[in-house]
Specification:
The chain is of the alpha/beta class. Helix content is about 35%, strand content about 20%. The chain contains eight helices and twelve strands. The strands form four sheets. Strands 3-2-1-4-5-8 form a six-stranded parallel sheet, sandwiched between helices. It has a two-stranded antiparallel ribbon with strand order 6-7. A hairpin with a 3-residue loop joins β6 and β7.
């Protein structure tokens, strides 16, 4: 079944562009919220409408936040009222000390901080545990890459899972939003293994049976 959701990707970096490209290839229309005009964004503008941040957010029913982790909460200030909208937090709070170091806000995770400042939004932590290469192409040798989802809203997870499945990912329920910090730590482990541990970026975590 084709999604009837209105999708907006907030952020014009590698993750946002790769995820947008994957959605479009999968028949999912999406717009992009960016500070720069479409004329400066090249390929991104060919994938979908590039709109001012608040306009993109207000037209969407599901938003994917794909900005640097240290400005994730700040970035939502430009989006307007997100009451009743699903906000998918694709970010990770970290800094670099000879490798990635998890650096969460006082709430315990970026997703929890977003939920605090946006009490009307349905926050889902997802699409944060692998690199942009897999956002653009979810295939692995063992099947689709896993998208772990943490949220206090089962309905929001169901809707995000439907989008993930349609675009070739394997969604897995990772429990309530309090588990978002675990997913951020999994992302830090992935970054360490890919960038410091010598595994390279063409690897991903996957839950497998015996």
């Amino acid at each position: 079944m084709q999604s009837k959701e209105n999708i907006a990707i907030i952020g014009a970096g590698k993750v946002g562009q790769a995820l947008g490209s994957r959605f479009v290839q999968s028949g999912i229309e999406c717009s992009f919220g960016a500070r720069k005009p479409a004329s400066e964004l090249g390929e991104l503008a060919r994938l979908g409408a590039v709109l001012p941040l608040e306009e993109a957010a207000q037209k969407a029913s599901i938003l994917f936040l794909a900005v640097p982790g240290d400005i994730a909460v700040e970035a939502t200030e430009a989006l307007g009222n997100l009451e009743g909208k699903v906000l998918v937090d694709c970010t990770n709070p970290l800094h670099w000390e000879q490798g990635p170091v998890w650096d969460p806000p006082v709430e315990g995770s970026t997703a929890a901080a977003l939920a605090r400042v946006l009490p009307g939004a349905l926050v889902v932590k997802a699409f944060n545990t692998f690199g942009a290469e897999f956002h653009g192409d979810p295939r692995t040798q063992s099947g689709p890459v896993d998208v772990y989802m943490a949220s206090d809203s089962q309905e929001a997870k169901r809707r995000v899972a439907a989008l993930a499945e349609q675009s070739g990912f394997r969604p897995l329920d990772a429990g309530p939003l309090r588990n978002a910090g675990l997913l951020e730590n999994l992302a830090v482990l992935w970054i360490h293994m890919a960038m410091v541990g010598g595994q390279g970026r063409q690897v991903a975590f996957k839950l497998v049976g015996r």
